[in-house]
Design goal:
Elements lengths: L10 H22 L9 H8 L4 E2 H8 L3 H13 L3 E5 L7 E5 L1 H24 L2 H13 L4 H8 L9 H12 L9
Antiparallel strand pairs: 1-3, 2-3
Length: 181
């Protein structure tokens, strides 16, 4: 009798498919709202800029990209009519990015659509499953920058904010999270 082969579990493939599906769904929903041309980085940048103007350096730091990449993001938003850039009145070396009225409307739409999708995913699984998925996704972050940005993301509903960090710390040390409780 031939030995039965077991296919290798490809977590990364599943994460990539989930990301593609998520971005596709956001894009479709925004198109139905009249916003064509969603870019995968729009959700993050809109959440930052909706709070108020931001210097490109700070925008880059929050997004985890270089100042030059943040400038390209700002330029693209400006071309689409969603942002304006201008020199800071107190420090002319600093370039500030500000949402235009159209950009504020777009930001509200992007945030509403992503929050709606978050709620839909949360309804598809139990709170324990959502917490486990959150833990696994945080454990899949290999670089310090990504882990730092993820630490700013709120945990799933019903999970205290410290639990995700504690579980992730356990995963980084390759320990069973139950051992630290």
């Amino acid at each position: 009798m031939a030995a039965q082969s077991t296919a290798t579990y490809r977590f990364g493939d599943l994460v990539a498919l989930a990301r593609l599906s998520w971005v596709g769904e956001v894009t479709s929903r925004l198109e139905r709202l009249g916003y064509a041309g969603f870019r995968r980085g729009d959700a993050a940048v809109m959440r930052v800029l909706v709070r108020g103007p931001s210097p490109t350096g700070r925008l880059g730091a929050v997004l985890g990209v270089t100042r030059q990449a943040a400038r390209k993001i700002a330029d693209a938003l400006e071309l689409r009519g969603f942002a304006a850039t201008g020199r800071d009145s107190r420090d002319t070396r600093q370039l500030n990015v500000t949402l235009t009225p159209a950009g504020r409307e777009y930001a509200r739409a992007v945030i509403a659509v992503t929050e709606e999708l978050n709620r839909e995913v949360a309804r598809r699984v139990s709170p324990a499953q959502l917490a486990a998925a959150d833990t696994v996704l945080r454990a899949a972050l290999f670089d310090d920058s990504a882990r730092q940005r993820a630490s700013q993301a709120p945990p799933p509903p019903g999970q205290p904010s410290g639990d995700a960090a504690a579980v992730l710390a356990g995963a980084e040390g390759h320990r069973d999270p139950a051992e630290s409780q």
